[in-house]
Each structure stands twice: as C-alpha cells, then as structure tokens.
Amino acid sequence: MTLAPQSVDEAAALVREHAHDDAAFVFSGGGTDSGLGYEPERADATLDTRGLNRVVDYAPADMVIAVEAGMTLAALQAELAPHRQRLALDPAWPEQATIGGLLATNAFGPRRTRFGTLRDLIVGVTVVRADGTVAHGGGKVVKNVAGFDLPKLMVGSLGTLALIVQATFRLHPQPECERWYEVVGLSAETVGALCRGLLERRLEPSAVVARYEPGTRYTLHVLFEGFTASVDAQGAAWLELARNLGLAAHDPGVDGAPVRDETAHPRGALRVRISAPAAAFAEVDRDVLTPLREHVQGESVAYPLVGTFLLGGRSRDGADVAGALARARTACETLGGNLVVADMDADLRASIDPFGTLPASFPIMRRLKERFDPERRFNRGRFLGRL
Amino acid sequence: MTVTTAAPGAERELSEIVGAANCIVDPGELRTYECDGLTGTRVRPRVVVLPASTEETAAVVRVARRYGLPIVPRGSGTGLSGGALPVEGCMVVGLSRMNRILGVDLENRRMRVQPGVINLDVSRAIAGAGYYYAPDPSSQSICSIGGNIAENSGGAHCLKYGFTVNHVVAATLVTSDGEIVEVGSAAADPLGYDLMAVLVGSEGLVGIVTEAVVRILRTPEATRTFFATFPSTDEAGACVSGIVAEGIVPAAVEMMDALAIEAIVAATGVDWPLDVGAALLIDVDGPLAEAEHTSARAVEIARASGALEIRTPRDANERALMWKGRKSAFAAVGRLSPNYYVQDGVIPRSEIGAVLREIAEAGASAGLRVANVFHAGDGNLHPLVLYDARIPGNEESAEHVAGAILEICVRHGGSITGEHGVGADKAAYMGQIFSDDDLETMNYVRCAFDPEVAFNPGKVFPTPRLCGDRPGPYHAHASELDGTAGRG
After folding, report:
1. Of A344, A303, A348, whose CA–CA distance to A323 is shortest?
2. How far does A258 lie from chain B, in Å, by closest CA?
3. Fold of A177-250
4. What is the dotted CATH code of the domain comprising A270-349?
5. Is A312 helix (H, G, I), strand (E, B) or coil?
6. Is residue B150 less than 8 Å (CB to CB) from chain A?
7. With an 8 Å Cβ cutoff, is A150 touching chain B?
8. Could you report the per-residue pLDDT of A149-178, keeping only the tens digit for each?
9. Domains A177-250 and A270-349 share a fold
10. Which residues does A73 contact at the CB level (< 8 Å), separation at least 6?
11. Does B6 reach chain A within 8 Å, measured CB to CB?
C-alpha cells in the first residue's frame, strides 16, 4: 500500500490512522539512496513524501528557507537562484533527490570540503513521530541553542526516528565565479602532497576531488569559487603549486563544473562509502581501494581533505567481493574509520553487512530508537544494528 | 520515597576517589560553587568533587548515583544561564583539574583535549604552526572547552565558521550509569545516529564529557578589519544587510549602540567617537585576494549605507585593540551602572532595526537604559539592561524588561537564546518557542542518555519531566548505605 500525503497534517493523520493496526511504515522520496541500510523487516505501507513539495517560508534577506521534505533539491535551488542564493550541497541526482531523503541518508557532494554536510546547514525541522504527533526542533534563525538539536539528530537517521516533513536551512550566496582545475596522472602520494600544499599555501577550495578511473591513475580536481579576483588569484597559486611539484596543471579557462554526479550509479550497483582520517589517503589507497579494485570494476572518487572515499561499480566475474569488502572494512576500521556498503545486489546483501562493527555508543542509539519509536513502526530494521 | 539528605558515607567514598583536597564539603569553600555567571541565583551544593581523570569522574558518578545525589557538571563557571547552578543536595563535578592537551594532529586537523582546557589555550597551542580553533566566545580567555561543549558556545566569528557543534567531532562521555563511552569519531561520518549533534549543547543533561576531539583550522592567509560609525542602528543594520546581499560572508559583524560605545570608551580608553548612534566592527578573512576584495566592497557598502566614519587598523596591534574594545563590552557596561542584566536572544537579521527600537521602548517604559552589543551578522542580540539593585523594585523592573526582550525576539520569529543556553534562567521561556509535543520529543533524547534524570535536573525543560515507562530511580535509605540496615 502506498500513501501519498499532500500536506504535513495529512501525513500525520495517515501515521495516526495506521497506528492501531501495528503497521510498519517505510518512507520514500526520490529513491536515489534507497539501498542504504538493511532491507526493512516489514513494509505494510510506503509513505511517499513527494506530495509535500512546497516552500513554507523564504526570507532572502535572512538567507534562510523552510521547505517541505518532498521537494527535490533541484526545485529548491530553482527557488533560490533568482536571489543569487543556494543551498551549499551538491549530491548526485538533484532532479530526483528529495530534501527529506537527502537528510535521512546524509547525502553530500564535492562541496562538503568547504561547506560540510546537511548537519552544518539545517537549522530547523518538523517531524511526524511514530505516534502521529507533529513536533518541531530548532527554528528559523541560524544561531539558536534552545533545546536539544533535533534537526541535526535527524540527519543520517534513515527515517528510523521520525518522518521528516519540513526542514529549514541556512543558505549561502551564489558565487560570482566558479572554476575547476585539474591535474592528471597522480599517485596517491602525490595527491597527498598536493593536498598538504593547498593547506600550507592557505588556499580555500570549495571542493577537492581525487578521481580514479580504471586504467588511469588519480586525477585531482580542485574547485575555487567566490569573487572573480579571489578565484583568479587562488587558481594562479594552485597552478604554481602543482608546477613546483613538476606536474602539468592547466587552467580550464572556463567557468562551470565538469565534476559532478561522480557518486551516481544505477540502483543495485555496488556503492561503497568509506570514511578514514583525512591524512591517510595513501594508506587507504594501498590497503583498502587497491585490493577492492581487483574485485570491483568501476571508478572511485575521494574528497581527500575530508577523508571520504566513494567507490562504485560492478563485481568482476567470479570475484569474492564479500570477502574483499570484509577485508577492506577491517583495514578502514583499523585506521579509525568505517566502510558502509551503500547499495548492492541481493546476492551480496546476503553475505556482507552494510555497516560493520557497532560503535561503543550503540546502546545509547538503541535507547534513542526505543524512545522515539518504541514499536519500531518506522523503517523497521533498516538502521545500524537492525534497529 | 525521598532522596537521602544525610549520608556521610557519600562524602567519605567520594573523598577516597578524588582525595580529600579535591572533595569539598566545607561550607565556606562550597560558597565558590554556589552559582556560575548567572550570579543572581545561588544554591549551595552538598559536595563538590574535582576529579583528575575519566576514571575518577566515572567513579564519583557511580557513588552519587548509589546515594541518589543529583549531579551537576561544571567547567570554568562562566556560563550565563545557570547551567552549572547547583541543585538542592547535589554533587557538583568540577572539571577544572582536567586541563591537559592530550594530542595535536596537524595533518588531520584534530586535537584531543581534556574538558578543563581553556578555549584560548587550544588556539595558543597551535598558533605557531598556523592553526587555530574557531569558536571564540568573548569569555574565551577563561571559559573551558567542556563548558563550551555543554552550551554549544558561539562567539563573534561563528557567522562564517559555525558553532562548537561544528567543531567538536568526538567525546569521551561518562554516562549516568558511571560508564565510559566513546561518542562520535575523529574521522568523518561515524556510524549510527549523530550523537555528537545532541551531546553538544545538551547543557550538562546527558553526561560528563571527559575528553573531546576538536577540529582545528588553518589560520586564514589574511584578515581585514574595519570599524564604521553610523548615525543610528538603522543605518548600521542596513549596512549589514547590504554586505550580506552582496554575497559576502564576513568572518564577524559586531554592532554596538551609543550606550555600549560610551561604556567601552570609558572602560578601555579606545578613541572611538562618542557622538554617534551605532558602530560596526567587521572582520573579513580568507586568501589575501579574497580578503582585499571583500573588505573593499564592504567599506563601499558602509559608505553607501550612511557611515559617518570608517577606520581601518594600521597594524595587528591596532586591530587587537579594536577587538579588545568589543570583547570587554559586558564588563565595561559595569562602569555605567551598578548592575545589569545580560540578555541573549536571536532575531532574523533583517529585523535588527525594528527590534532594537522595540527594545529601547521596552526599556524606556520601565525607566531603564538598555545597551546593545551583539553579533549582528547572525542576528544574535545581547541587550544589557542597566539597573541599580539598591533602588527598590529596580531589579524586578530589569528582569521584566529582559523578559519582554525575549518576547520581542520570539514575536519576530527568533529564539530565546543564541549562545548562552537555557539552563536555569530560561527554562520558563521554552514554552514560548516550543510546544509541549516539541519538548516531549526533546525529552526522548535526554531519557535515552539519562533515564533517571540524574544530571542537572530542573534545567532546560520548563516543567519537571520524568522519563516514564521505565522503573523510577532507586534511592537507598541512609541506614541501608551506612550498613546499619539492609533490604531483602
């Protein structure tokens, strides 16, 4: 059964209506990250949020917008563009991905290097609880310490604490100019050296992406954006830095964004999200990515200043992908990070856990779930520890 | 069942854990801990312990829980909302002895520190290497990282760089069971719910942080500062809006009204003009070309907005003096008035002019002056309500005006606190911005960490809230604890 509420009140009423019959809900938005987590144990009703697609409140002078959760990211950006503003988030599939889904999965793109993730952008939230009650957290001002930070708590919770129906964000100005630079044919060590150089030189890129494609070595894409004078100066400094390392870096000479959608893969394809200390780029390349590439055909991108690595593709014929992932996960966890299998086919799902070792704080997480959703009505079993 | 009020065993056990010198029971010495920066309210704690380690902290929590003592964590005691105000019969856990920097990892831009480390000392430790810790509350030379975590402290530069919650990535937490749990991760995206998001800013309600991993940033290549005066706060407010509309994200935009300027000049001797209605102190930073370009544009916008005078510091020394003037504002107001009430509210930035007028009217109608010195970039107001406690009724009037200011902020779509916290001071105002359902939902968070409400009871939530549907706290009788009686 699919339910498609057209308003927050209707969404709350639907949850309440089904509360008596022990129904377990799953939520769906644009479906761009629906493979994340365990398969829900039960899905008596699917609540499709895409009817909740209105702007609730937009005050351009305050650079804050409140929207319903079913609005797509592209639609949100289109509202902001005439005011030369943006939500500083650039994940894959902006035409499909909904705000609620992006929040639930903690989706991100290359610009997290500078702007962080949705937890750094959200300032208010409205949710429908598992008992059908509508509750709010945060507010519509960018600075606010009244009460527990429910907006941030919802980020990455995979719809297992509450149904996100509205969210309020702080916005950033559209840059006057944005320009990507690239350096090709790099070893992992050179990527690390260039990143150290960026920091040393005090440059402030909006994105740094190390892309690896089969048959090539790393290409490093660096995005500077802001006022033209600043972009020009930083671009020149970056080229000098690369040339000083004996590398052929070139100025693209045009504005725009050649690097996008690098995390995009068809549903069901293997997608791996790795987190590790930022400076461990070479170790991750050697101990995690290189062994994985023997079993997985595909490309990988990394945000080396953040310590995030994304690998996507398909299994090579006859490969023991589950075994390779398990070993890669152990290597990540040894470095103090983690490896999440964000999507995979059914066969692989049977043989590898999506998340890995439970953190020491998991008992607190379980108690959170018990408080918010004691009957496990929302996305039952989907989250870490099958909560 | 009542909580035991006289169990000498508790003090003895606590003393064994932290040492007699660090277990304070003397009424005279306890007086130091009767309040924090919210000095108007005082409660004498039953006992104060000053643990030296995570293990000692966990041990004292276990003892307190066995004896049914409420637990109140405390950092430097500079908080302005009474977050560290003792509650009746409580054990205060002072973290000031845990003041060591445990590790610096420049490559990954992380530091591990104990909670008693002073905010400014984090930046000082890494300044030579060209790094700093971004959150900079005005009290940064005395406030502690642990207190900053409890309050999600901000500061002048959070407009561009964010708050404590954006800069603390992991913590060692002593829970209400006296267990030691690692929360969050030094690396990005730890698995599971974002516990750090609720731990930071939890005002001592979920446990005691005994270690923290903080993000450190590369010091910007250039910072440009300028000081501009205006005929009134309206023009200054228009200037702030104009800068933001230009697409500039300044590192800091601080506004001072005439009364605040008068106080700062009198207290610090800075040569700011007195015949103006408002002043802005603005920092822009970043790569050199960025800072040069944005400061030049911001100065043009200030002129176009009606600035009377614009000053740029000639060197780092002059810049430091300007900022010293701003950061000493609260203390300076003490020279204008024997007493003042510090308020902390937030409004949408575009409402600054209208709200300041309403605040002035609220003060005038009570016969009180209100000085304003605040973070204009993010609409975080700090009205200081001046009064004289020797005049009968004056203090009550000031409190009334301070309350009215919060109502004005809420009416304009803002919040009752931007950085000082709710604590004991504003719990009664939470209902102005949150419904019962909202508060009940927030209470789920507290109950997940501390189901028996052992930490900081009575703070933040407007009415006492229990966690329900779980067994209530077990409070042993004194005789049972003394060993003179038992159960079962």
Report:
1. A348
2. 24
3. Alpha-Beta Plaits (3.30.70)
4. 3.30.70
5. strand
6. no
7. yes
8. 999 999 999 999 999 999 999 999 999 999
9. yes
10. A87, A89, A91, A94, A97, A98, A99, A102
11. no
